[in-house]
Design goal:
By secondary structure, the protein is an alpha/beta fold. The chain has a single domain (2-194), classed as Rossmann fold. 24% of the residues lie in helices and 24% in strands. The protein is globular, with a radius of gyration of 16 Å.
Length: 196
Amino acid sequence: MLEDSLRVADLRGKRVAEIGFGSGYVTSLLSERADEVIATDLSEEAALHARRSLGSKAEGVHLIVTPELSCIRSGVRLDLIVSNPPYLPDEGLWDLSIEGGPTGIETCIRVIEESRRFECDSVVVVSSLSDLPGMYRYLESIGHRASVISKRHLFFEELMVLLISPGSSDSGPKDLEGFCDTPVLRAQPEREDQVR
């Protein structure tokens, strides 16, 4: 779903960061579309696997083992941050690859904080099982908005790819021309009971 959203993005001339590259699949896609990719993950094993998987696509890709973008100086220009973070609420499994914090939005909020630090938009995946009303309140409190790029209903949840941008949600979804050719839906529900 994230990769489908990125396939239509015009990333020519852009420097894109990916937080949590895992296998390197999305990193590979980004390397075909953007001029430069800075990809981070906590796992050295993932970095070695991703480097092998990238093969000839590795030019212009920087794989870094670090939490979020902590080792990147704030003055570095980034045009977009992409992440498919762990988004499920903690259920005591101690699995950082799927649990995104007590309410499921904490890891996503760290990604958004990085986009604020670099003054760029971010694209994140979220689940209807997480605290989406809390996410919208957080975005409103920092003067940002979410636009739904795509969504998919699975057995017991709905996954959404969101574009997070500076600007009040009251002004409606950001114009995604040049980023996405698919219809953009308003992410801020009219009522909280529409979220789940």
